[in-house]
Amino acid sequence: MPAPKSVIIRSVGVHTPERRVTNEELSRTVDTSDEWIRTRSGIGERRIAGPDENPSDMGAKAAAQALERAGLSPADVDLLVVATMTPDLPFPSTACLVQAKLGLRRDIPCFDIAAACSGFIYALQVAADMVRAGRYRRALVIGAEKLSSVVDWTDRSTCVLFGDAAGAAVVEACDTAGVGILANLLGADGSNAELLWAPAGGSAKPASAETLAAREHYLRMNGKEVFKLAVRVMASSCEKVLAEAGVASDQVACFIPHQANIRIIEAVAAQLGLGMDRFPLNLECFGNTSAASIPLALEQAWREGKVRHGDLVLMVAFGAGLTWGATLLRWHEPKR
Ligand code: ACO
User: Fold this and answer.
1) Which atom of ligand 1 is nearest to the CA of 33?
2) How far does residue 80's CA lie from ligand 1's centre (Å)?
3) Is 258 an active-site residue?
4) Domain locations in the chain as residue ranges
5) Which CATH architecture has domain 181-330?
6) Cα separations (Å) of 35 from 20, 24, 40?
């Protein structure tokens, strides 16, 4: 297969659990309030998955919607990449579980990417580069998370921030030049790993009665430090990607930032000299859904007509690792 002229996001899909948990409901179990959560984070409620609703189930549903919107069937997919920090199982990968649930072809490569909240940007870039190399025509990229399983529901400083969801994109080779993904950037700094981590439950410190008693297999975060680093890397990632593409920030119709905290997003917008009108938000309804956050926000912006054919769109994320990434694309909807 010859290398394509460009690589586009052809369609997007989402799945969110039915169950809404409001700040007021949380304040009945931990010492917090709707006022504190809203003013510190911008979050009003989050969705919480049921016991039989796992990242592979939510991811398969989001992907099925993206395929249907593109008029495609599972047999049309050549590659599957799933971004998640809450895989269904330690192994095999969530991608293999999604492959079986969706009925994708049995001979295609399927794998997970672990880059926490930057996971979707990482997965998108890996999949897009594999499509760009000419070996695969069409990839499914999924961000799927069940953070409710890994947050410590007794820790008010973290449990109020996260939620469950999945988002998916069909990434495809395109014969039109100058559209789709124009520039991208990925980065990481492992020297800050312990700012946001789960100390136990991996092979370094397997789950034991002691780790369970110490609640070490739950998410722990130094919120203040993560906040400062997040603003810095999100703003500089945007600036670098814009410079690489020769695009001014005010030419971008829509920014899709990782939805962790409204104050982080406001600080990034201010640093780029832009108003918040170019930054669609969904964290009020969903909180921080990690790798699902960007496709969830992108899908909503597209559905609401904030992302249209020909628009420049810049997606930017940061997460545990620390990791970060940004992707600039020209939204392209090919005629069918
Ligand atoms: N309700 C009420 N009070 C609370 C709560 C709560 N839920 N949580 C903390 N507090 C208290 C603290 O105990 C503290 O009290 P003290 O002053 O008596 O000690 C006070 O509120 C202030 O706490 P801070 O930590 O200073 O609050 P801050 O303004 O920094 O906001 C927050 C905290 C929202 C966590 C912020 O630091 C933040 O958003 N950080 C970035 C987090 C983030 O984006 N994480 C996602 C990373 S992506 C990924 O990969 C998962």
Assistant:
1) 1
2) 35
3) yes
4) 6-178, 181-330
5) 3-Layer(aba) Sandwich (3.40)
6) 18, 9, 8
288 lines ligand 1 (CB under 6 A): yes
181-330 and 6-178 share a CATH fold:
yes
CATH topology of domain 6-178: Peroxisomal Thiolase; Chain A, domain 1 (3.40.47)
* Ligand 1 lined by 116 (C-beta under 6 Å): yes
**How many C-beta atoms lie closer than 10 Å to residue 52's C-beta?**
6
Which residue minimizes the CA distance to atom 26 of ligand 1?
224
Distance of alpha carbon 20 from the chain centroid: 20
270-291 burial, b if ≥16 CB within 10 A, otherwise e? Answer: ebbebeeebbbbbbebbbbbbb
H-helix segments, the chain: 23-26, 34-41, 55-69, 94-102, 119-132, 156-159, 209-213, 223-245, 262-271, 283-286, 293-303
Q: Catalytic annotation on 184?
A: no
230 touches ligand 1 (CB under 6 Å): yes
Over its C-alpha atoms, the chain yields an Rg (Å, rounded) of 19
Tens of pLDDT, residue by residue, the chain (336 residues): 789 999 999 999 999 999 999 999 999 999 999 999 999 999 999 999 999 999 999 999 999 999 999 999 999 999 999 999 999 999 999 999 999 999 999 999 999 999 999 999 999 999 999 999 999 999 999 999 999 999 999 999 999 999 999 999 999 999 999 999 999 999 999 998 999 999 999 999 999 999 999 999 999 999 999 999 999 999 999 999 999 999 999 999 999 999 999 999 999 999 999 999 999 999 999 999 999 999 999 999 999 999 999 999 999 999 999 999 999 999 999 887
Close Cβ partners of 226 (under 8 Å, ≥ 6 residues apart): 195, 196, 322
